[in-house]
Amino acid sequence: MSAQPLAFTHRFEPGAPAGTPLLLLHGTGGDEADLLPLGRAVAPGAALLSPRGPVSEHGALRFFRRLAEGVFDEDDLRRRTDDLADFVAAARRRYGLAAPLALGVSNGANIAAATLLRRPETLAGAVLIRPMVPFAAPPRADLAGRPVLILSGAMDPIVPVENARRLAAQLVAAGAAVTHRMLPAGHGLSQAEIGLAAGWIAGLAP
Would residue 73 show up in a list of annotated catalytic residues for this protein? Predict the structure, then answer.
């Protein structure tokens, strides 16, 4: 009998069996191929699991709906977070993967943060690039030392500095081991951050 198709259109690239896989979560307007080069750059040899966001906003793919810039449809976010967590669990069984480290950019970072808070068993940790607070009232979560790197832009026109700091505080309160770097950048990813993320991920290896 053939295996049932997984719920998300995605790309999978195998990696070293002993390494931690990366769950790549693109930003608005990206797709499942978008972050593969970034994943290879920051974690050479890691398995890469890269789903396509299932929501279309005027033709731009996202992982959940929003009501306005910076205003999330939290009912949709909760449902989409559960869908993503279920997909990761099924993909782990299909491909024989350990719990992945999420690498999310913008909208992808937001659903990664939501997954940490709502379905913490899904992820081994996360690199969150330009994330915002996903829930007005965060769920109670036990992140028990889970490593999280947050890369924020001090000149980001979309994510206020206070919002990024509040997310970091919520994750720390849930027990995560958070490293929050505030960089002289806007909303876009800089080349220097690729090196920062690669060094941080390399430092997680036992």
Answer: no
CATH topology of domain 10-202: Rossmann fold (3.40.50)
Residue from 34, 50, 106, 152 carrying the catalytic annotation: 106
Catalytic residue among 10, 83, 187, 190: 187
The residue type at 130:
R
Burial 74-100 (b: 16+ CB within 10 A, else e): beebbebbebbbebbebbbeeeebebb
CB 49 within 8 Å of CB 24: yes
Distance in angstroms (rounded) separating the CA atoms of residues 89 and 75: 22
Q: Cα dihedral sign for 63, 64, 68, 69?
A: negative
Query: What is the share, in percent, of the chain residues with pLDDT greater than 70?
Result: 98
pLDDT tens for 6-35 read: 889 999 999 988 789 999 999 999 999 999
Q: Where are the domains of the chain?
A: 10-202
Question: Is 26 known to be catalytic?
Answer: no
Query: Coil, strand, or helix at residue 113?
Result: helix
Catalytic pick among 82, 156, 180, 190 = 156
